């Protein structure tokens, strides 16, 4: 038996601890998927998701955590005739290129350093030079960097070109103002396991009419497959069959999350995320540490990335935070691994006081490891000032 104990606080960038309401939802009786009560539940949850996502048509719910939705979007929308433009400002954006590559004729890329954001003007230029680009893909919040791309501006530009716009909004949707129609996304991929406060297990996809047309005319779009979008197109209707068994318990948990979100109100939820991140950033810099994002304008409201001080490893810092203070935070990934650590502000952890918890553990651990006195008190004071100013 392992002697490891669970952390007291999980302040990661996902999976995050669930809202208590979600845990209660998950504990509802698991019904047969063709029980009329479950069929109605599925349709009801789909309709509630229209409200949350501000769409007329219900999103598709795929039965696997959001990488399923992301890969299925590439497989379904991209054909072997297509030139595709992938926008890379971080590890997820880069990773999406591997899937696009598998299905397209030619993959083009715009790449910026992983602490910066894509410049919309560069997208405009690329589309003007290559009018044959059929699909543009971007990650909104590239979580391993904690940075946000200007999807609204990019969406305007892509819409004018007629290309299909695929957006990974997995770790931003539900925590900030990003909605499929507002940003002119054709395939908007998200999931309930980040800012909606559910466990990992489902993908949510909003698909535009233009994207459906592209999928339906794509000879290689999967059907009768776990990667198929079209299989699920009408599954939200209580009268239509499911292509496969849906994750009954996850759907119940999702309904609880959506009810909670609608009750609290989107604006309030977003403000809570933004305030927590602002307080966290103020504390990080006030105690003498540095933010990873090149500028605060592109720092995410749902995660704060902190550059590792010279000589401090990811393993040592996060290990000490967990052992000494019981606080679990996230590491970097791929290119950002061992360069930064990440504090999540997602769903139930998007509470300003959790920023203080993270800051004290971070400051305490980094002071112990370096022998330098990082000013934890100044960090906490700065964060408290941000919180006080907002009330
Ligand atoms: C969490 C996340 C996903 C889901 O993928 P996992 O790596 O399996 O967690 C996809 N995209 C982004 C931007 C995410 O933050």
From TrEMBL:
Start and end residues of each Aminotransferase class V domain: 112-333
Cofactor requirement: pyridoxal 5'-phosphate
Annotated positions binding substrate: 342
MF terms in GO: alanine-glyoxylate transaminase activity; L-serine-pyruvate transaminase activity
GO biological process: glycine biosynthetic process, by transamination of glyoxylate
Modified residues (N6-(pyridoxal phosphate)lysine): 194
Keywords for this protein: Aminotransferase, Pyridoxal phosphate, Transferase
NCBIfam families associated with the record: PyrdoxPyrvTramin
Protein family (similarity comment): Belongs to the class-V pyridoxal-phosphate-dependent aminotransferase family.
Record's protein name: Alanine--glyoxylate aminotransferase family protein
UniProt organism field: Roseibium aggregatum
């Amino acid at each position: 038996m392992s002697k490891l104990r669970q952390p007291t606080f999980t302040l990661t960038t996902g999976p995050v601890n669930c809202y208590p309401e979600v845990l209660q939802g998950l504990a509802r009786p698991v019904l047969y998927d063709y029980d009329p009560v479950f069929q109605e539940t599925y349709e009801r949850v789909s309709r509630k998701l229209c409200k949350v996502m501000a769409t007329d048509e219900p999103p598709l719910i795929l039965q696997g955590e959001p990488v399923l939705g992301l890969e299925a979007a590439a497989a379904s929308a991209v054909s072997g005739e297509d030139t595709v433009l992938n926008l890379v400002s971080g590890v997820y954006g880069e990773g999406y290129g591997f899937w696009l590559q598998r299905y397209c004729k030619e993959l083009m890329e715009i790449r910026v350093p992983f602490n910066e954001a894509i410049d919309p003007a560069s997208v405009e230029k690329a589309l003007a030079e290559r009018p044959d680009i059929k699909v543009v893909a971007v990650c909104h919040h590239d979580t391993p960097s904690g940075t946000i791309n200007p999807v609204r501006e990019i969406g305007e530009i892509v819409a004018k070109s007629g290309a299909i716009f695929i957006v990974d909004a997995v770790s931003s949707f539900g925590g900030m103002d990003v909605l499929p129609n507002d940003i002119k996304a054709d395939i908007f991929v998200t999931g309930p396991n980040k800012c909606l406060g559910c466990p990992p297990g489902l993908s949510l996809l909003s698909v535009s009419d233009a994207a459906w047309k592209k999928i339906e005319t794509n000879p290689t779009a999967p059907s009768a497959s776990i990667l198929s979008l079209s299989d699920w197109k009408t599954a939200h209707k209580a009268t239509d069959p499911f292509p496969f068994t849906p994750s009954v318990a996850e759907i119940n948990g999702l309904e609880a999350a959506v009810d909670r979100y609608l009750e609290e109100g989107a604006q309030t939820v977003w403000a809570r995320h933004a305030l927590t991140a602002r307080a966290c950033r103020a504390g990080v810099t006030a105690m003498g540490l540095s933010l990873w994002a090149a500028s605060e304008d592109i720092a995410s409201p749902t995660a704060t990335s902190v550059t590792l001080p010279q000589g401090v490893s990811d393993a040592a810092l996060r290990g000490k935070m967990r052992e000494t203070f019981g606080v679990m935070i996230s590491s970097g990934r791929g290119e950002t691994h061992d360069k930064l650590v990440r504090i999540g502000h997602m769903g139930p952890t998007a509470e300003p006081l959790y920023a203080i918890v993270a800051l004290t553990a971070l400051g305490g651990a980094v002071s112990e490891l370096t022998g330098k006195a990082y000013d934890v008190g100044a960090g906490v004071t700065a964060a408290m000032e941000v919180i006080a100013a907002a009330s």
